[in-house]
Specification:
This protein has 17 helices and 25 strands. With 517 residues, the protein is an alpha+beta fold. It has 4 domains: 22-93, Dna Ligase, domain 1; 97-222, D-amino Acid Aminotransferase, Chain A, domain 1, CATH 3.30.470.20; 236-405, 3-Layer(aba) Sandwich (Rossmann fold), CATH 3.40.50; 424-501, Alpha-Beta Plaits. The strands form 7 sheets. Strands 1, 8, 9, 10, 11, 12 and 13 form a 7-stranded antiparallel sheet that branches. Strands 16-15-18-19-20 form a 5-stranded parallel sheet, sandwiched between helices. Strands 2-7-3-4 form a 4-stranded antiparallel sheet, covered by helices on one side. Strand 11 (186-197) and strand 12 (202-204) form a beta hairpin.
């Protein structure tokens, strides 16, 4: 589920006619001070972080002046939630509260319908309230066609002993909330607390809205950057990874950063999984050997080598990792030599500067092991590859031993740049571009690119040069599967005349900001 930040959710509520406090988002203490001045000085400063119990963690602060707002924002912005810094605060006018309530629309998978859940007690977890004060909680399954009627909402509030004008206004807010949930295709839309003020208004002081991942593309107005369930606002690398995944439906590339701001020598590894169960086994094995993982990554469902390549480059753009660990299911149906070629291209282009251990169990694993270990011998760092018969614990132990023998202060080697082709022969692929330098190809005896081409769309011209035997349009539409054999096998077994350009938008800029270029 993709989650909206509090300020984003409140924008949606306000557009539906649900009252929210006046507020502004700030990213620096100075911005927070300016916002507090415009709002009158007496404000609340709230971290825009996806965590419960913010007040108890010092992430919500009530202040009476512009100066105090600036200090509160500085303290909050210097805080980390989990392993990620708080980057935004919401500065809001304070509201005089007479009573706190709760209202939420939850999609109930068991009942296969949305449910309106209310509580006469707000400001705490609804589950805890239901346990300790069951008489204060009521729920109503909603008809997906008819929605929520005003009289039904009023009857629900009557059941928890809310009456009069407050009941009417709370019911109206619930009807509007149900409309919001339907409009944005929410899995959950909750307001806690939904307050009744001293001046007789009903105001949403906080909200939580999560949207079905599969529906995000229909709602660009929500400003959701990454259609994934994250426990934090998306990081720059998560945005870059999502841009790779969102329009390429060939297999899966799921990337989630689990920590940031680490340095070499802390036994942090870049983790590259393939399949959920196998990935969890791999992460457990790493934990048993004293490692922590920088990220979770899953490239499964038979992705092309180009997607595995981009995933590996993104993983290696996390500064400070001590090693690279890949593992997945031992019975994967995908052809593992595609993954091996994607990893080889990434490792050579970085080039890899830390030890790597990869377990590629499944179809074609023998060929995958041969490619990954044989084609990376010149890197100067150890790369080991194993198949399904090698336990994942053994692989984690090998990585631990390799890292212990390597220099924790080894410098990152400069990235290799492809040389300009003298006699280029170029064609577009679904997500990139392939170039053969026929001046180099003329010196090649093996013509490994033609024999290794998995979709068999290459042939030798009359003068012995690799060319397409399908049209340029057919290659771009998908006849070229981006198996990367035309570069990886060419570099290892031929003269090195082939190069595949696979851009990763935003990655070079990110690397420069992190000192990796």
């Amino acid at each position: 589920m993709a989650r909206l930040a509090e300020f984003q959710g409140k924008q949606v509520l306000a557009a539906a006619g649900i009252a929210v406090p006046r507020g502004e988002v700030a990213r620096t203490p100075a911005e927070a001070a300016s916002a507090a001045g415009r709002l009158g000085g007496s404000v609340v400063v709230k971290a825009q972080a996806w965590t419960t119990g913010r007040a108890g963690k010092g992430l919500i602060r009530f202040v009476e002046s512009v100066e105090d707002a600036e200090q509160a924002a500085a303290a909050i912005l210097a805080t980390q939630v989990g392993d990620f810094p708080v980057t935004e605060v919401l500065v809001e006018q304070r509201v005089a509260v007479k009573a706190e309530r709760y209202a939420g629309i939850i999609l109930d998978d068991r009942r296969r319908c949305p449910v309106l859940l209310i509580s006469a007690r707000g400001g705490t977890g609804i589950e805890e309230t239901a346990r300790e004060h069951p008489d204060a909680v009521a729920e109503l399954p909603l008809d997906v066609v008819e929605g929520l009627a005003q009289h039904a909402a009023r009857e629900l509030w009557r059941r928890v002993a809310v009456h009069g004008e407050e009941q009417r206004k709370l019911a109206d807010a619930c009807v509007r909330l149900a409309g919001v949930a339907r409009q944005v295709e929410a899995r959950a839309a909750e307001i806690n607390p939904l307050v009744f003020t001293d001046d007789g208004r009903v105001v949403a002081l906080d909200c939580r809205i999560t949207v079905d991942d599969a529906a995000v593309f229909r709602h660009p107005e929500l400003g959701i950057e990454v259609a994934r369930e994250l426990g934090h606002p998306p990081t720059p690398l998560e945005r870059i990874a999502w841009d790779v995944e969102k329009d390429d439906y060939r297999g899966t590339f799921y990337f989630l950063q689990m920590r940031d701001g680490f340095s070499r020598g802390q036994k942090v590894v870049a983790f590259h999984g393939a399949g959920g169960g196998g990935s969890m086994m791999g992460m457990d094995a790493l934990a048993r050997h004293g490692f922590v993982v920088a990220n979770f990554c899953d490239t499964s469902g038979n992705p092309p080598a180009s997607k595995v390549y981009r995933a590996a480059r993104i993983l290696l753009s996390q500064p400070g990792v001590d090693g690279y660990f890949g593992t997945g299911s031992g019975v994967a149906s995908q052809e593992q030599f595609h993954s091996a070629r994607g990893l080889v291209k990434a490792f050579l282009e970085e080039p890899l500067a830390v030890p790597a251990v990869v377990r590629l169990g499944g179809n074609g694993e023998e060929k995958a092991i041969e490619i990954l270990t044989g084609f990376t011998k010149g890197l100067g760092v150890p790369v080991e590859c194993y198949g399904k018969d090698t336990p994942v614990d053994t692989c984690a132990q090998h990585l631990s031993e390799l890292i212990a023998r390597s220099s924790a202060t080894a410098a990152r080697l400069p990235q290799r740049e492809p040389r300009a082709a003298v006699k280029p022969y170029t064609f577009a692929t679904p997500t990139g571009e392939i170039t053969y330098d026929h001046a180099v190809c003329a010196r090649c005896e093996s013509k490994a690119c033609v024999s290794a081409c998995v979709p068999q769309i290459l042939q030798l011209s009359e003068d012995g040069m690799p060319v397409l035997k399908v049209t340029l349009e057919e290659a771009q539409r998908g006849r070229c599967t981006e198996c990367l054999a035309c570069e990886v096998d060419c570099r290892a077994l031929g003269a090195g005349g082939g190069h595949v350009r696979l851009p990763v938008p935003g990655l070079d800029d990110y690397r420069r900001t992190r000192g990796l270029e």
